[in-house]
Amino acid sequence: MIKNKFDLLKIGVFLLGISGIIIAFVVFDMYSTFRGEQEKYKNSFYAHCSEKAIIINANGDLHNVEVLNNQSHVVCSFDGIPANSEELCVVETEGFYIVKAENKKDVVECKKQIKRTIIPTPIAID
């Protein structure tokens, strides 16, 4: 009777060890997949529009940067933007703009900022 309990204890410990190894492999696979996706989508620059101005954030050295309007006319151009810096391009109208640097293009939408006003509601005091 005691020998059967000892055998079940060995089997239980063995199964816990196997499940621990499987969980470790799954966690490692998730980590390596996530890390690979981050490297894959790491961009050389990021562009966005704020108050009719396109802001270009350079993650690496950029050369021959152009901002084009929706008719492909050059609005702004820069010979180079150093790594970890920003450049500003003021646009006249709302709409879509293309930021082109080396082999990458990014589309930016400039639209009117909606100014919200908070109107306090009166509270009846009894």
Explain the overall architecture.
The mean pLDDT is 84. This protein has 2 domains: 1-42; 45-110, Immunoglobulin-like, CATH 2.60.40. The protein is built from 1 helix and 7 strands. The protein is 31% helix and 37% strand. The longest helix is centred in the N-terminal third of the chain and has 39 residues, at 2-40. With 126 residues, the chain is of the alpha+beta class. The strands form 2 sheets. The chain has a 4-stranded antiparallel beta sheet with strand order 4-3-6-7, with no helix packed on it. It has a 3-stranded antiparallel beta sheet with strand order 1-2-5, with no helix packed on it.
Structure summarized in a few sentences:
With 126 residues, the protein is α+β, with helices and mostly antiparallel strands. The chain has one helix spanning 2-40, and strands spanning 45-49, 53-58, 62-68, 74-81, 85-90, 95-101, 104-110. It has two domains: 1-42; 45-110, Immunoglobulin-like, CATH 2.60.40.
